[in-house]
Amino acid sequence: MTGGLQPCLQSRLPQDAPTLSRIGRFAPSPTGPLHFGSLLAALASFLDSRASGSRWLLRIEDLDPPREPPGAAEQIIHTLDAYGLHWDGEIAWQSRRLPLYREILQQLLAAGLAYRCQCSRSELKRRQALLRYDRHCLQHPPSAAATCAIRARYPDQTLSFTDRIQGVRRYPSAQSGGDFILFRRDGLFAYQLAVVVDDAEQGVTDIVRGADLIDETPRQQVLQHYLHYPQPDYAHIPVVTNSSGQKLSKQTFAPALSLEPELIVPTLWKALHFLGQTPPPELRAARRDELLQWAITHWDITAIARQTARCQEGE
Ligand code: GLU
Ligand code: ZN
Q: Which atom of ligand 1 lies at the shortest distance from residue 25's CA?
């Protein structure tokens, strides 16, 4: 879909790398404990990988220390374990991979695919360039001494991709937000850069995640193209909302998943139903791993609803 884009860098991935094995992943940002919405993303991705005999990786996206309460990553890891969602291999930590992101950023800058931007939020607002960046700093490059963000160029063309759950998605460039941030003025790497680099470096072929991230996909595909990375397949599961229609998140005070042993199977059961999977009633009393095994064997991604699913409190 990004076929018309020019130019791109030489691939830094081995070209003869074996492509036989498929790889999925769960990539939480440790901004708080897992809630029911994040369990759905983890479970869907886990089942999708296990059902196809793929590897399933865990990557902690800890790139934003001010937003990460101490111990949150460990709590996420512990919760996944308690719910029986066991990953393969070592956990990847983005905070330990900054030199790689820095190197790739330099390559993008050198190739003219990214550029420095010193606009502050208030300047962007004044120029009405908050929603779609006006390329001010591409036309007026900041001085070498200026503290800058780094933006990637976003093409002036309609991009589209086919999501395994949501179908064909089209993104006219006028609604795209334009050139997007890879590195923030406060010195932090943006999610977009790290997620694309790591998915490629880890050989991820199948991305299953919440639909709140679906509109990030075209930007990620632009970067994949620039970096000569293969494009993974995407599946975006519906976002869960609370009874007032708000997305479950830390900001809407979604409760942390319970670790009470007697609540694990009922919570997994409810999560499977949200994903359109219908285990037989006798499995309500099953052990955790028995229920998960059923879900792996019977995994049907086409049964997942496209739309937002509402979660009633106490349901
Ligand atoms: N770290 C991101 C988040 O927790 C998810 C990244 C992804 O799945 O692409 O929202
Ligand atoms: Zn700028």
A: 8
